[in-house]
Amino acid sequence: MKTRSIINILFVMLILTLTESCNREEKKEGENNISTDVINVPSTASGITAETGSAPIMTFKEEKHDFGKITQGEKVSYSFIFTNTGGSDLVISSAQGSCGCTVPSYSKQPVKAGQESKIDVVFDSEGKSGLVEKTVTLVTNCNPSTKILSISSSIFVPEEK
User: Fold this and answer.
1) What residue ranges define each of the domains in the chain, with the CATH number in brackets?
2) Which neighbouring-strand residues pair with 60?
3) Per residue in 46-76, pLDDT tens?
4) Of 6, 18, 122, 139, which cross-links 77 as Cys (Cβ 3.0–4.6 Å)?
5) Phi, psi (deg, nearest 5) at residue 87
């Protein structure tokens, strides 16, 4: 009799749990997702509170680069040049390519106000063909905190003999 009572109690608890989980309203796609564009960056790289207009600003000479026509298997590189046009140190915390074929590299040192620096991007066209577009996403202490750079190329596949 005791075992049957325990089973009945467990069964009721299971039904209540399932009922409760079904009654919860599902979150709509994108709801409660915070865009990094709205994050306030109140401090400089040195930890000092940033005054209005003194935050770092990443200003690129160009944010897109087309390698033009290249042969499949070729590795090409490009340096995206930027200047910190803000009033405090700019720090890049990460740079991520959209795939393993796009590899960015950058200085881990803060970029002083007025100083120029670069993001080097190497693209490996091995196994790729046709028009290819890739991106590099930077995360910085600027506002907005993300910056996306783009590369593209038209990849020619040589005929086999």
Assistant:
1) 44-156 (2.60.40.10)
2) 82
3) 566 555 568 999 999 999 999 999 999 999 9
4) 122
5) -110, 10
